[in-house]
């Protein structure tokens, strides 16, 4: 099992009583099955396009994930306008993808 997230993958399979060998990779994990490095991968999937482009299919969902922007309070006080601008641009980009923005 190739992944960028070895602790998550290890915990997930151990809790299900499945013994798997975890190979930690950085970068394009979806290439691991293509080059014979692993039979399966654990990765974050948004649209599934990269999986399909590499002849892979999603077998199961391990966890739902969300993205959070966390700002240091002191930095926010000093650079609040830049942080607010970044938030507005992120919300606009997310809105174009049809994804809900939580407060």
From TrEMBL:
This is ATP phosphoribosyltransferase. Pathway: Amino-acid biosynthesis; L-histidine biosynthesis; L-histidine from 5-phospho-alpha-D-ribose 1-diphosphate: step 1/9. The keyword Glycosyltransferase applies. It catalyses: 1-(5-phospho-beta-D-ribosyl)-ATP + diphosphate = 5-phospho-alpha-D-ribose 1-diphosphate + ATP. Heteromultimer composed of HisG and HisZ subunits. Belongs to the ATP phosphoribosyltransferase family. Short subfamily. It is an enzyme of class 2 (transferase). Keywords: Amino-acid biosynthesis, ATP-binding, Cytoplasm, Glycosyltransferase, Histidine biosynthesis, Nucleotide-binding, Transferase. Residues 2-91 form the ATP phosphoribosyltransferase catalytic domain. Its main location: cytoplasm. It holds the Pfam family HisG. It comes from Calditerricola satsumensis. Catalyzes the condensation of ATP and 5-phosphoribose 1-diphosphate to form N'-(5'-phosphoribosyl)-ATP (PR-ATP). Has a crucial role in the pathway because the rate of histidine biosynthesis seems to be controlled primarily by regulation of HisG enzymatic activity. Its EC number is 2.4.2.17. It comes from the Bacteria. The keyword Glycosyltransferase applies. GO terms for biological process: L-histidine biosynthetic process. GO terms for cellular component: cytoplasm. GO terms for molecular function: ATP binding; ATP phosphoribosyltransferase activity. InterPro entries: ATP_PRibTrfase_cat (IPR013820), ATP_PRibTrfase_CS (IPR018198), ATP_PRibTrfase_HisG (IPR001348). It is found in: Cytoplasm.
